[in-house]
Amino acid sequence: xxxxxxxxxxxxxxxxxxxxxxxxxxxxxxxxxxxxxxxxxxxxxxxxxxxxxxxxxxxxxxxxxxxxxxxxxxxxxxxxxxxxxxxxxxxxxxxxxxxxxxxxxxxxxxxxxxxxxxxxxxxxxxxxxxxxxxxxxxxxxxxxxxxxxxxxxxxxxxxxxxxxxxxxxxxxxxxxxxxxxxxxxxxxxxxxxxxxxxxxxxxxxxxxxxxxxxxxxxxxxxxxxxxxxxxxxxxxxxxxxxxxxxxxxxxxxxxxxxxxxxxxxxxxxxxxxxxxxxxxxxxxxxxxxxxxxxxxxxxxxxxxxxxxxxxxxxxxxxxxxxxxxxxxxxxxxxxxxxxxxxxxxxxxxxxxxxxxxxxxxxxxxxxxxxxxxxxxxxxxxxxxxxxxxxxxxxxxxxxxxxxxxxxxxxxxxxxxxxxxxxxxxxxxxxxxxxxxxxxxxxxxxxxxxxxxxxxxxxxxxxxxxxxxxxxxxxxxxxxxxxxxxxxxxxxxxxxxxxxxxxxxxxxxxxxxxxxxxxxxxxxxxxxxxxxxxxxxxxxxxxxxxxxxxxxxxxxxxxxxxxxxxxxxxxxxxxxxxxxxxxxxxxxxxxxxxxxxxxxxxxxxxxxxxxxxxxxxxxxxxxxxxxxxxxxxxxxxxxxxxxxxxxxxxxxxxxxx
Length: 656
Ligand code: ME8
Prior knowledge:
This protein is an alpha+beta fold. Among the domains are: 342-492, Isoleucyl-tRNA Synthetase, Domain 1 (Orthogonal Bundle); 549-642, CATH 2.40.50.140. Helix content is 39%, strand content 18%. The protein has a six-stranded parallel sheet, with helices on both faces. Strands 17, 18, 19, 20, 23 and 26 form a six-stranded antiparallel sheet that branches. The chain has a four-stranded antiparallel sheet with strand order 5-4-6-8, covered by helices on one side. Bound molecules: ligand ME8.
């Protein structure tokens, strides 16, 4: 039986098909903050994340790269700079990391699949779809592009494949009831979409095996079939606890999960398919699935193929891991989409962290150090009329914060902590310690003011620890709060610090960022990364259509020498060439290559031209022919090179 003080929380397992971006980081950081919060409260937490490593896409990408699928995923997951390193950098405190290629997981999947088959929840049938023969891939009608294969653009044909199906339809009523009549799925706004779009139109049985690729868990009782996607991926949440394997013994302690955090596009799989699989296995259902929103860039979903991804590593290196973690959870309401921008990131860091929190800390600690010898407050202190409101606000912070955290409302929880921080900054202005410091008689009052500020910092820092663990540790060090004053219990009351606490000034935790300079640098870095990600060389595909020889030889290609070359007035593109073509009469050709060459550099060069094109007028000048050049694309930029020939070849020589 699961104990009420245990807490099991998961992220989705990520596809290691590309490097992860800030959107993936968002979900993992949120899960980490929640796990740390529960640990702070004293729960026994199991925080699971991992990677979803099977499937056709990985198989294809590995083939393209000329390596095995396992080598391919290892490069993205466990090699230096991979997913494991990213989570280390982001200070993610996961207790376990599952890879669906781990042998214990594969063994469990085979057992789960077999059991569902033997009890009749999985049956053998025929998968029907559109089949692309060269790609050996099935597609659904909606995946096709203009009725053709979305990968290679060729014709597809109706085809059937033997496959296993899971009886999802059997569980439709129970799932509808679960969604409508419990708070299994949150935010509640997502329930309506699930029921109306997917359940009410009729749940179809789900194809759970394939024979058209091999990179998956083999169905052990039917060679040639591999388990297809969702049974393999979703079951990670139980196999990682030791369900149907001997690797771990945590199933009894931690299942059912307290919450699965998932992005909104996979809510459907977690809120419909996953409970159905668990119902079939006769296991308790997770207590909650929380579908968070997406981070958008310029209003669209980030995706590697669109080239609009934001790299969390660059941001963490520039601003610090904690500032990035804070921004992600403070800026966007967790259940809704949010637009990522560098401006928003920098202004949030400047406003909240540099101005409010960073300033409060450095002002308080430096005043305490300046006004009291060795930074130690005297125990004799005097209350004042300004104290009541701020101490009450700080003392009740933990309750308000807890209320928000229990609803996964990270943004609100952080806003509560920052209300205390803002109030403390105002309290400095109200009490004006620099005025109090002028008169020795005010010493007890001054000490009390400092003490209240330090307590506000301490209580806020305890509750900010799940979000900014490293920075809060440094705050505690500066304000003299020992380990027993960093706990959840100690955050429930105002007045935990000893009256004669000693502060120790440290580094400035959140330096202010120069917005304009930073934005320019970030843009340049993003541009460079975008370029680096582009294929180094792109060539125009060769034409499939043939041209007959007689047509080809009608093109009169000649060697020409440049006598003069000028920029055409009012045109950014055109150069006007005066050429010796061997006939004794100058030939004029206009060419749109001004962005590639300085005209004077071309005088005297030996080039190739086609000379029997009909005359053409451009910008009022006549062009008689065309100069030949070679064109290709390098890292997204078009490159052009005029065909230059040996100067030993005379003008007018025919090219053939
Ligand atoms: O879906 N903003 O893996 P995945 C917020 N393997 N979240 C984002 C995001 C963005 N811009 N982009 C991606 C899979 N995500 C499956 C899961 S679970 C049994 C199997 C989130 O790597 C996305 O919403 O494509 C999803 O929750 C997670 O990253 C993993 O996406």
